[in-house]
């Protein structure tokens, strides 16, 4: 298999896993396909924490996988109020073919000393869920662009397992305390490397009765999906976004006495994005593939709890 085949298998596995955890995404897919349309995802988002542990700190933990599978680094973003930095990556061969990857990281040292210490202690010693063999296969794929079928299948299985929480379930009290300063940190302590959200690419939806984002959102509301109250971006702008509300799930935590507990918390929403154009180098319009900081900030808030 070549790197494109491995990437395709990984994306399909992550999408299937995500739909089981976020039924809104599966409902959207069913509604689109019933109308003869197509579901194509615009981007996948991940959250990370910039501190030392078994896996690389912050963004690089996720980025090393996708750059080995044909992605290149593009735009950088800062969210000063939330103490976040982010990059987005595009599939080099064709940015319209595969979803962009948006990876953010919490700059933990910019939090209060007490909160930073709590987070670092919670993650210290967490292993890298990618084994040495899997890292070697990734490097081989990056260099040679191909692997035999059995090694490719083994690599995909290992990559899917990586997108989970590598550290032990956090203490309930720590999640609740950290959440007071950073809901992003609380979410990441609970969910680790799991996909934060997928995003429907409305431009490729091809449902005649849903010609744009607004028509799609109205149809989803009518079908009973809980949608975000406001749109991000103006009609006809270079990027307009909406989303479902975040789906809550029971998360593993540890209680003060060391026993196992469960804490109901947000997991993920399903985002929808419609892209417009910007002037290209020659003055002709080209599709806008980036992200807008203020709009992304508002979407971060969709997983806020407590």
Throw out a few tags for this protein:
single chain; 306 residues; alpha+beta; 2,3-Dihydroxybiphenyl 1,2-Dioxygenase, domain 1; seven-stranded mixed sheet; two-stranded antiparallel ribbon; 37% helix
Question: Would you kindly provide a written description of the structure presented here, covering whatever features stand out?
Answer:
Helix 1 runs parallel beside helix 6 (149-162). A hairpin with an 8-residue loop joins strand 3 (84-91) and strand 4 (100-106). The termini are far apart. The radius of gyration is 19 Å and the shape is globular. The longest helix has 19 residues, at 3-21. The model has no long low-confidence stretch (mean pLDDT 95). The chain has one domain: 2,3-Dihydroxybiphenyl 1,2-Dioxygenase, domain 1 (Roll). Strands 2-3-4-1-5-9-6 form a seven-stranded mixed β-sheet, with helices on both faces. It is α+β, with helices and mostly antiparallel strands. The protein is 37% helix and 23% strand.
Q: Summarize this, please?
A:
The protein has 306 residues and is of the alpha+beta class. It has ten helices and eleven strands.
**Could you please say which CATH topology applies here?**
2,3-Dihydroxybiphenyl 1,2-Dioxygenase, domain 1
The number of distinct β-strands equals: 11
State the shape.
globular
The major β-sheet equals: 7 strands, mixed
| Proper CATH architecture | Roll
The helix fraction, in percent, is 25-40%
Write down the domain tally: 1
SSE string, helices as H and strands as E: HHEHEEEHHHHHEHEEEEEEH
Helix/sheet category: alpha+beta
Distance between the termini: 46 Å
Task: Determine and state the CATH class.
Answer: Alpha Beta
Mean pLDDT rating? 95
Low-confidence stretches: none
CA-atom Rg in angstroms: 19 Å
Spatial ordering of strands, largest sheet: 2-3-4-1-5-9-6
Beta content comes to 15-25%
Per DSSP, the total helix count is: 10
């Amino acid at each position: 298999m070549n790197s494109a085949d491995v990437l395709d298998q990984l994306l399909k596995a992550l999408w299937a896993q995500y739909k089981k955890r976020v039924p809104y995404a599966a409902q959207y897919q069913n509604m689109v396909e019933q109308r003869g349309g197509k579901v194509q995802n615009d981007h996948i988002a991940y959250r990370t924490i910039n501190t030392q542990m078994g896996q690389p700190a912050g963004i690089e933990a996720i980025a090393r996988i996708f750059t080995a599978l044909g992605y290149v680094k593009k735009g950088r973003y800062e969210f000063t109020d939330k103490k976040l930095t982010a990059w987005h990556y595009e599939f080099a061969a064709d940015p319209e073919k595969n979803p962009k990857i948006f990876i953010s990281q919490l700059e933990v040292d910019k939090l209060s000393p007490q909160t930073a210490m709590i987070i670092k202690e919670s993650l210290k010693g967490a292993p890298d869920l990618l084994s040495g063999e899997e890292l070697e296969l990734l490097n081989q794929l990056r260099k040679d662009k191909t692997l035999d079928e059995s090694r490719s299948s083994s690599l995909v299985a290992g990559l899917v397992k990586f997108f989970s929480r590598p550290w032990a379930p956090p203490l309930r009290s720590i999640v609740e305390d950290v959440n007071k300063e950073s809901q992003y940190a609380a979410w990441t302590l609970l969910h680790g490397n799991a996909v934060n959200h997928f995003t429907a690419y409305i431009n490729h939806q091809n449902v005649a009765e849903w010609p744009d984002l607004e028509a799609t959102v109205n149809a989803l509301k009518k079908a009973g999906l809980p949608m975000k109250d406001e749109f991000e971006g103006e009609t006809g702008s270079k990027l307009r976004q909406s989303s479902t509300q975040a789906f809550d799930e029971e998360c593993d935590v540890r209680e003060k006495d060391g026993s196992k507990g469960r804490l109901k918390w947000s997991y993920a929403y399903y985002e929808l994005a419609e892209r417009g154009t910007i002037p290209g180098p020659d003055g002709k319009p080209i599709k806008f593939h980036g992200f807008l900081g203020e709009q992304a900030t508002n979407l971060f808030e969709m997983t806020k709890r407590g």
